[in-house]
Design a protein that fits this description.
The protein is of the alpha+beta class and about 90 residues long. It has one domain: Orthogonal Bundle (Arc Repressor Mutant, subunit A), CATH 1.10.10. The protein is built from three helices and three strands. It has a three-stranded antiparallel β-sheet with strand order 1-2-3. The protein starts with 9 loop residues before the first strand and ends in a 6-residue tail after the last helix. InterPro entries: PQQD, PqqD_sf.
């Protein structure tokens, strides 16, 4: 798998409650909660989706592996569908 990256026109801003992504091409933005922000940062740092799942499961042991896998898959799918992911 190639490293995950955001499109060059997407800016990232951390907030008190998570992360905001702004697609400067369209003006659309997305707010990621704290957990989504952790997942995004790990992906951008080169961690595989499976590595992100493992890390989140360790940090949040009550979440359940299947749920965390689904959440990470949903995040990746949403970013790719919105065309804010470069990979």
């Amino acid at each position: 798998m190639m490293n995950f990256a955001l499109a060059p026109e997407v800016s990232v801003t951390d907030t008190e409650h998570g992360t905001v992504l702004l697609d400067e091409r369209t003006g659309r933005y997305w707010l990621l909660n704290g957990t989504g922000a952790l997942a995004l940062r790990a992906l951008l740092d080169g961690t595989s989706p499976q590595g992100v799942v493992a890390s989140l499961c360790q940090r949040f042991p009550d979440a359940g592996t299947a749920q965390v896998e689904q959440d990470v898959d949903n995040l990746l799918h949403a970013l790719r569908t919105a065309k804010v992911a470069a990979s």
